[in-house]
Structures are given as C-alpha cells and as structure tokens.
Design goal:
Elements (H helix, E strand, L loop, with lengths): L1 H23 L5 H21 L8 H28 L2 H8 L2 H11 L7 H17 L6 H27 L5 H24 L9 H26 L4 H6 L4 H13 L5 H19 L1
Length: 282
C-alpha cells in the first residue's frame, strides 16, 4: 500500500511537471532551465547523501553510476526540456506514454523479460497511435518537439532497465546523487554561458518557483520514488504507471494552459493507450 501511494504521488507530480515546465519556458531558455534545474537538484540531494552512512564505491561503481545518470538525468531532461518547448503538453505527454513499450523492448533484448506475440502486437498498435498523433498538428515545430520527447522517453527507458540491473547494489539516494551531481558538473560550462545572455533579475517569481518545483519535486523526489519502486517491481510494470500521465497532464493543460483537444489527438491517445495495455497484459 505504501509503495502504490508513493507511485501515485510520483505520477501526480510528474504530470504537473509538464505544466510548470511550459510556464517556466516562457521566461527561461531551454538549455538554461535544464542546467539550473540540475544544479538545484544536486544541491538539494547532496547533503542527504553526505550526512548518512555510505557504501564504499570503487572506480567501476562510479563509472556505472555516472552512466545511469547520463541517461536518466542529463540526456532525459535535456531532451524533455527542448521537446516541451517545441510541442504541446498533450503531445509530449502522449509521446512519453510509449515509455513502457520501450522498457519492454530493451528489457527483452537483455533477457530480463519475455517478449510475446501479443506484446509485439501491442507495440505495433502503440506505434500506429503515434502516427495518428502526428496528424494533430502540421508544421515542423511539433514534429521536432515530438521527436525530442521520444528521445526523452527512450533515455528514460534505458535508465529504468539500467537502474533495475543495479537496484540490488545501489540505493536510490546514491544513484540519484551521482546522477544529479554528475549532470550539474557536466552542464556547468553551458549553464554559465547561457546565464550570461539572460537578464536573470527580470525573471518573475512564478518562473523561479516553477524551476524549484522541477528540481525539488519532479527531479529529486520523483526519481527517489521511481528508483525505490524499481527495486521492488519489474521495470516494465513500474513504467506502466506512466500511461496515467498523458491523461492527467492533458487535463491540466486544458485547464491551466488553455490547450485545445482535437479529434485526432483523442484518437491517437486512445490507440497509444490500447497498445500499451496490450503490451502490459501480454
């Protein structure tokens, strides 16, 4: 019961992250937003890691943890921020709904889960839903944004599988500390360069609070819950909860951002959901 309650909190916070990211991007350039988010997340989680008993880590452990962090944080959040700046919340949320399918493909290729005929059929249905989704908007910006969101989904799927394979060795705080500190250090030169071109004093309190939400809740807290969950469940089962995000994020976008819901959007979303459900039941 506690585990499912935590997962519910995680899904709600991640759904809200689509909205706050859109609001923050009205004033922050995408690369600056991503860099400052990583730095804030690192500053929030580092004291927790330092002031607790820690396991001894060798060079191989450090390399593995940094690799997990590159996919789960640096690349995932970079692609997400760029993608959400170029497409709608509803499009982004539905594209991220493909994450369970990608997790299954990767886990299956590594012999961690079985890929059955019915699961393959579900993947085909989900992909056809993406094709329908692309009819919702015309023009390059949405296609470019959706492509980056797909890359965000792919890197998070890699993070999920890598995290599951390391779940018996490292705890959630260790994994996420290396992920965020490593990401912050790697992005520091780019963040400083971006900050020099933006009048930070002119950014509103609302935008800063959105950035804080993205760092404290959508980053640190949600990633801790997610890694805690994949230590106790199959990776595809944990990632399956992500298909609640498109519905919640889309409803939030309609209510707070005034986004329009078209027939092709509903149809594409329904087909994606159907495909993901078939994958999970197969």
């Amino acid at each position: 019961m506690i585990l499912y309650s935590l997962i519910t909190v995680m899904v709600l916070l991640w759904s809200g992250n689509f909205i706050v990211a859109k609001v923050a991007l009205r004033e922050f350039p995408p690369l600056l937003l991503m860099g400052v988010r990583s730095i804030l997340a690192a500053l929030l989680i580092l004291p927790v890691y330092l002031f607790r008993p820690r396991m001894h880590l060798g060079r191989r452990d450090v390399v593995r943890l940094i690799g997990i962090g590159i996919f789960g944080v640096a690349l995932n959040q970079l692609f997400f921020v760029i993608g959400i700046s170029c497409t709608t919340v509803t499009h982004a949320a539905l594209m991220l709904g493909l994450t369970p399918v990608l997790v299954l493909l990767i886990a299956g290729s590594l012999k961690m889960e079985r890929i059955t005929v019915s699961k393959v059929a579900g993947m085909a249905v989900a992909i056809s839903g993406v094709a329908i989704l692309q009819t919702t908007h015309t023009g390059a910006p949405s296609a470019v944004g959706d492509s980056f969101i797909f890359l965000a989904s792919l890197t998070f799927a890699v993070f999920t599988v890598m995290g599951k394979r390391s779940a018996t060795t490292y705890d959630a705080i260790t994994v996420n500390t290396f992920a965020y500190v490593g990401s912050a250090v790697a992005l520091l030169p780019l963040t400083i360069s971006q900050a020099r071109t933006v009048p930070l004093a002119g950014i509103s309190l609302t935008a800063w609070l959105c950035l804080l939400y993205m760092a404290a809740f959508a980053s640190v807290l949600c990633y801790l819950i997610y890694y805690y969950a994949i230590r106790r469940m199959a990776p595809s089962r944990v990632s399956a909860f992500s298909y609640f995000q498109p519905l919640l994020a889309s409803l939030m976008a309609v209510f707070w951002l005034g986004e329009q819901v078209s027939l092709s959007l509903v149809a594409g979303g329904a087909v994606i959901f159907t495909g993901v459900i078939l994958v999970e039941r197969g």
